[in-house]
Amino acid sequence: MARQAKAKKLLNTRQIRDAEATQAVILAAAQEEFAKHGLIAARTQAIAAKTGVAKSMIYYYFHDKQGLYEAVLERSHSDLLQTSHQLDLNNLSPEAALEIFLAALLDCVSQNPNLPLIMFHEAVQNQGQHYKHSTSVSIDKVLVKILEKGVATGAFRQLDPLQSAINIMGTCLFYFIGMGNTQHYPQDKPFLSPAMLEQHSQEAIALILAGVKNT
Amino acid sequence: MARQAKAKKLLNTRQIRDAEATQAVILAAAQEEFAKHGLIAARTQAIAAKTGVAKSMIYYYFHDKQGLYEAVLERSHSDLLQTSHQLDLNNLSPEAALEIFLAALLDCVSQNPNLPLIMFHEAVQNQGQHYKHSTSVSIDKVLVKILEKGVATGAFRQLDPLQSAINIMGTCLFYFIGMGNTQHYPQDKPFLSPAMLEQHSQEAIALILAGVKNT
DNA sequence: GTCTATACGAGGATAGAC
DNA sequence: GTCTATCCTCGTATAGAC
User: Fold this and answer.
1) Regarding predicted confidence, which is higher, A148 or A129?
2) Listed residue (B26, B106, B122) closest to B68, CA to CA
3) Residue A186's closest chain B neighbor by CA?
4) The pLDDT of residue B136 is above 60
5) What CATH number is attached to the domain comprising B7?
6) Strand C: which nucleotides have any atom within 7 A of a protein Cβ?
7) pTM metric for this prediction
């Protein structure tokens, strides 16, 4: 019916034949899909449906599903990498450095809650192939360095830096991974609401700082 | 466990027409596959290949892929549920109760490192449907209770019990989920070696106890 | 650049012999 | 109970019109 066609056209504010915009919507939809399902279980059809563009556009711009996946990985990590690169923690005390680092990390993932999910699908499905020759692992290395320094100066208790770095990352990131299991709890605020995210950041930082400090 | 021993034995020297053993090998192989890929991305072909039995045996015993998946979920959680049910923490101090609880949890997942991965996939793929009407969430509820009591008695610092319970679970379980990303580190011992698992348990418990204690 | 239609292979599930 | 062979849906990827 003509009226419906018109309505549809009006609803679809997206400009037609705008290459950049099309790539952007595809990437955004793909990020969600890959976060939920990982590379293998993700469906190109589902991604296309979310965007409103034809499925074949994925192949036009990204060659194949794997190409789109890699573009999403790259794009998702760039914020975190950039942030961590900008941090200058060398002339800070270990406690201060740790707190700054954690705040930055938690801020990043709060702004993009899909990132932890993407990281861990990649970890378990592909054994983290993407991180093998990437600089992404530098994130963890920064944390290990902070912990080593803290142990050396006596600011932190005797702990294994690598093990503790993993556990600390877990404290920060598990919230986003386990959400599906925990969201059934009687809870007034949604887990991704700004208030809850802020509270998570504070609770995580408090737990970690108290956990590593030398008494 | 006798069942698993039988399954392993039959992986080497397969006897024919042993219903119980066949189901056991399928379940064992399926657990690994579902841990790595979750329900959707898991391949029945891959499961069959690992067992040596024909793919159609999966359908004979478990009706379909979903049926097998549910059997694996049930089976994988039973140890943890049983263990947590046996714990009697009521007449212990919050600190002692927390330590016992964590030790039991870490022991369970150390014996079955697939469990956290299975939980993770179920959480993100199915929004934890399996846990909705299951008693599995009781695990977390036990932890929340301990934390509430500790805050009330002043043994623990002021913390949000639910948020902290999630973060604590993350500290314990993330090690197993993030392994794929972390195993590229220069590391003498494999992440699932008894020594590393034991160290992880100790480090996690130390971090958490120090993290919640009132100073 | 974007769409529709379709080829083609992968993978879930079944049939039927043994 | 177990196997082999087969069916058929679903999903990736391509072809070709506009």
Assistant:
1) A148
2) B26
3) B162
4) no
5) 1.10.10.60
6) 1-5, 11-16
7) 0.93
